[in-house]
Design a protein that fits this description.
The complex is a heterotrimer of chains A (191), B (403) and C (166). Chain B has 403 residues and is mainly α. Helix content of chain B is 50%, strand content 10%. Chain B is built from 18 helices and six strands. Chain B has helices at 3-11, 60-64, 73-77, 84-99, 105-133, 138-158, 178-202, 206-212, 220-225, 231-236, 242-245, 266-289, 308-313, 315-326, 367-371, 375-379, 384-393, 398-402, and strands spanning 20-24, 36-42, 45-52, 334-341, 346-353, 361-365. In chain B, strands 1-2-3 form a three-stranded antiparallel beta sheet. A three-stranded antiparallel beta sheet of chain B has the order 4-5-6. Chain B starts with a helix and ends with a helix. Chain C has a domain at 3-97: Beta Polymerase, domain 2. Chain C starts with a helix and ends in a 40-residue tail after the last strand. The chains are: A alpha/beta (191), B mainly alpha (403), C alpha/beta (166). At the B-C interface, helix 2, helix 9, strand 4, strand 5 and strand 6 of B face strand 3 and helix 3 of C.
Chain lengths: 191, 403, 166
């Protein structure tokens, strides 16, 4: 974190804090728009669902480990139940046999939900240009952020999570009910 | 369960009993990898299990028929991705057997060091995950920190962390740098301390022993009938290890014991893998002490890239460089089978070459695929949490299961 | 495997099944015997029990497709763990109708290996308890490892065949 300052003789803390949203401040109150507050709260507490199928799953385990700690971004609690998850992280090759399962998991998630496709296999089929591998999960579900790599380094996965955080923070509260979002879901055949 | 239900239960005749079906589905937090088991259960006891695999079938064998020999190494990485260097080096040895090349001693010793490091990482994950499935999450975090040390060693040698594509047909692309040796020594100093701590957490722990002794056992005759190999077979009592039975890459020069269990249950598998990690550490130390000097690659001009100075000045080297990169090298005709001791057992490569630039048929003898067949028999009559523990103690890696 | 051990194995088989053997060779010092299909199970059972051979471990089982002669080979590899001998048995089957008896009665580990060979090549194993596809999707109608079928998914439109694969 480049914003940290050393604790010297002044009393400034060395822990970086989240940016305050723009608003009007006074004694005992702070007025800003609801979207900004909700965005800030959501972005710092994303509960991921790790849908780990192959080698990228091991790199995810390394990302969750102590060295590259993903929990400091708010993802302390992994949810394996789609009903309680915000972010679907698809890591690893998705074969055509697994496609319907992935689709069912995505449909069980509640709005607002985001999808992060980690690795070359999930993004586009990767090195497996074969009859049994789905050439990218964006053929069956809508994807927000793609992380390339085979497997991507933990720093790249964290970069993907930071981009998701940016999307979460700046999303409008009306987006999920809008006509454009519904047409996009209809393109995938999801109601 | 209220009082009425318990009364109804007693009056039902056994033939009319109803069983419930539980789908331990492809996506499940406790199954490490994606495979499905439909369990027929009587309350908490499992009567029957029907496994379904193939959810990550990537058609390796057909893909290998299209790729030249150098380009198959990244495919072998993704078989048992927890210990990728063993797969890579096994494949290189198969091609070297087909070509009939003689590998220098130094290359063999360096390969042994890398394969034993990979074996340690594979057993680390398996044992840590057995701990997690009984509820002991601390061991997992400590062990993954140690895996980072090994990742750093791989990065110094070949540039990648997990799917390493390490070495070349004929040896290595460069000798190990002093930084790599520094990291290996650091690992050898720090890892035994953590391994001892991890072992003390679980080895004589009352709860762990109660949960794992007598669970998911298999007899030696049954294990042989199902073609088990590797730590699972050794835990059942048979001391078959490819490194000792058919020594390859100078394993006969090293002094190590093969740990053997007696019951074949989860505790025995945990202890066999634990002891194998100590033996691997000892092999690495012996290899470093006895490391001979010499070239770090064999003379295989059709497969080993020539140095760049020669490529720019020498016509032959230029032609070899072009042919290797474009994958146009032809291989002699032949039919060869080579096996190495992978993290899970005997990993075999059956290669038929018809003289062209790609294999005619390449079959991977994958140990996970063969011993997972015994899983329904091993969990019959046990409870659901024991079934989860049995699965994680068998170290089933989905990439190797489906290929 | 030493030459004398190989001789012992060949003698043991020739004692009873001389006319089932079609070809004997040893590429890279690995004894390989091609036999006829009718008595495969008997021969493997005999090798399981015979004192000189005792091949009681099934290493692997696989199929090979030769499109020029229109035949599919089923290859068995057996291993004797005690004195460390290996043997490979090959059976040639016609590609239009590859049928062969199953060896799951002798080796329980052959169950999934035979299912995999059925899935990839279409070889029918008579007497198998559960012969259905194992790795591919159940609705698939072709046998993908045969040489006439392509590797890539033919319905994909985002990859340019001039750049990918050959």
């Amino acid at each position: 974190m480049s914003g940290m300052e050393k604790v010297a003789t002044n009393t400034k803390s060395s822990v970086g804090m989240s940016e305050k949203p723009e608003g009007y401040e006074g004694i005992g109150f702070f007025a800003t728009s609801l979207e900004k507050v909700v965005g800030m709260a959501r972005k710092n507490s994303i509960w991921p669902l790790p849908f780990a199928t192959s080698c990228c799953g091991i790199e995810f385990m390394a990302t969750m480990g102590a060295h590259y700690d993903l929990a400091r971004f708010g993802s302390e609690r992994l949810s394996f139940s789609p009903r309680q998850a915000d972010l679907l992280m698809v890591m690893g090759t998705i074969a055509k046999k697994m496609g319907p399962v992935l689709r069912q998991v995505y449909e069980q998630m509640a709005e607002p939900r985001w999808v992060l496709s980690v690795g070359a296999c999930a993004s586009s089929g990767g090195i497996f240009d074969t009859y049994s591998v789905l050439q990218g999960i964006d053929r069956i579900i809508p994807v927000d952020v793609y992380v390339p790599g085979c497997p991507p380094r933990p720093e790249q996965i964290i970069d993907g999570i930071i981009k998701i955080q940016h999307l979460v923070e700046t999303e409008s509260l009306r987006r999920r009910d809008s006509k454009e979002y519904k047409t996009m879901l209809n393109k995938y055949g999801i109601e | 369960m209220n009082l009425n239900e318990s009364l109804i239960d007693q009056t039902i005749a056994p033939e009319e009993k109803q069983y419930s079906y539980l789908n331990l589905g492809p996506t499940h937090p406790a199954t490490h990898g994606i495979f499905q088991n439909v369990l027929k259960m009587d309350g908490e006891i499992i009567i029957e299990a029907e496994p379904t695999i193939g959810y990550i079938h990537r058609a390796f064998e057909k893909l290998a028929e299209r790729r030249p020999y150098n380009q198959i190494t990244p495919l072998t990485d993704r078989l048992n991705y927890c210990s990728a260097p063993i797969n890579n080096i096994g494949w290189h040895m198969t091609v070297e057997k087909l070509l009939g090349t003689e590998i220098p001693k130094r290359v063999q010793y360096l390969r042994v060091i890398i394969m034993e490091l990979a074996r340690i990482t594979d057993h680390l994950i398996c044992n840590a995950v057995i701990g997690v499935d009984t509820g002991a999450l601390t061991g997992f975090v400590y062990m993954f920190q140690q895996r980072e040390l090994v990742y750093e060693i791989y990065e110094e040698i070949c540039g990648a962390r997990l799917t390493t594509n390490i070495g070349r047909i004929g040896g290595f692309e460069r000798d190990f740098s002093p930084k790599a040796w520094e990291k290996v020594h650091k690992f050898l100093k720090e890892f035994p301390v953590t391994l001892k701590e991890f072992e003390n957490l679980l080895k004589r722990n009352r709860i762990f022993m109660d949960r794992t002794i007598g669970v998911g056992g298999i007899t030696a005759e049954s294990a042989l009938n199902y073609s088990f190999s590797g730590p699972n077979l050794r835990a059942a009592g048979i001391d078959y290890d490819v490194r000792v039975a058919m020594p390859y890459s100078s394993y006969e020069d090293f002094d190590f014991i093969i740990p053997v269990g007696s019951n074949g249950d989860v505790y025995d598998r945990f202890m066999v893998r634990q002891e194998e990690m100590w033996q691997s550490l000892s092999i690495i130390k012996q290899a470093i002490d006895k490391l001979p000097d010499g070239p770090y690659h064999a003379i295989v001009p059709e497969f080993y890239l020539p140095p760049k100075e020669e490529v720019y000045n020498n016509m032959e080297a230029l032609i070899y460089h072009f042919k290797i990169v474009m994958g146009e090298t032809d291989v002699p005709k032949g039919e060869v089978y080579h096996c190495v001791e992978g993290g899970n057992g005997e990993l075999g490569f059956y290669l038929i070459s018809d003289g062209g630039r790609t294999p005619f048929r390449l079959q991977f003898r994958r140990p996970c695929f063969i011993y997972y067949q015994a899983y329904p028999e091993m969990i019959k009559g046990s409870m659901l949490s024991d079934a989860i523990l049995t699965m994680s103690s068998m170290n089933v890696i989905a990439g190797e299961l489906d290929a | 495997m030493e030459g004398s051990d190989q001789e012992k194995v060949i003698t043991a088989i020739k004692e009873k099944y001389e006319d089932e053997i079609l070809h004997i060779e040893a590429p890279y010092n690995f004894l390989t015997i091609t036999i006829k299909k009718e008595k495969v199970v008997e021969i493997i059972h005999y090798l399981y029990n015979h004192l000189d051979t005792k091949f009681q471990f099934l290493t692997t089982l696989g199929g090979i497709h030769f499109p020029e002669v229109n035949q599919i080979v089923v290859m068995y590899q057996l291993h004797n763990l005690v004195n460390n001998q290996r043997i490979r048995l090959k059976v040639y089957l016609p590609a239009e109708n590859p049928v062969i008896p199953t060896i799951t009665g002798i080796f329980a580990g052959a169950n999934w290996l035979e299912r995999e060979t059925y899935d990839f090549f279409g070889v029918i194993f008579e007497g198998h308890p559960n012969l259905k596809r194992i790795l591919n999707v159940d609705e698939m109608i072709i046998y993908p490892m045969r040489k006439e079928y392509p590797l890539e998914d033919q319905t994909r439109e985002d990859k340019n065949d001039t750049m990918f694969g050959r």
